[in-house]
């Protein structure tokens, strides 16, 4: 009579990774009014008046400034909406995204 061999089942647990984060970056330009930049930062990124002014001044002094860090979809959506808001008013204000290291 053949012998029956049973093997225990191994449970595999899927490896769950945190989503990669992306930085939203404000690029300085010499044409967009500072008050408009602050308004966009407050409206789209929910920054306080003080935070928005600090981000705007940093971008003005250094040429660029990281506004916030989000998952890829959120970062790209916010950057696009903020850039589109500036275009709608005729300003060259630009926001970009890049992966966080």
TrEMBL record:
UniProt key word Cytoplasm: no
Keywords: Hydrolase, Protease
Family matches, as InterPro entries: ClpS, ClpS_core, Ribosomal_bL12_C/ClpS-like
Pfam families, alphabetized: ClpS
Record SUPFAM superfamilies: ClpS-like
Family: Belongs to the ClpS family.
Subunit structure: Binds to the N-terminal domain of the chaperone ClpA.
Purpose: Involved in the modulation of the specificity of the ClpAP-mediated ATP-dependent protein degradation.
Record GO biological process: proteolysis
Protein name: ATP-dependent Clp protease adapter protein ClpS
Any one GO molecular function term: peptidase activity
Domain named Adaptor protein ClpS core: residues: 18-96
Source organism of this protein record: Mesorhizobium robiniae
């Amino acid at each position: 009579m053949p012998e029956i061999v049973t093997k225990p089942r191994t449970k595999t647990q899927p490896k769950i990774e945190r989503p990669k984060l992306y930085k939203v970056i404000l690029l300085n330009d010499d044409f967009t009014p500072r008050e408009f930049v602050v308004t966009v930062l407050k409206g789209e990124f929910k920054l306080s008046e003080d935070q928005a002014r600090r981000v705007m001044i940093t971008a003005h002094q250094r040429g660029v400034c990281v506004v916030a860090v989000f998952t890829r979809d959120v970062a790209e959506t916010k950057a696009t909406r903020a850039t589109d808001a500036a275009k709608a008013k005729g300003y060259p204000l630009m926001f970009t995204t890049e992966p966080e290291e």
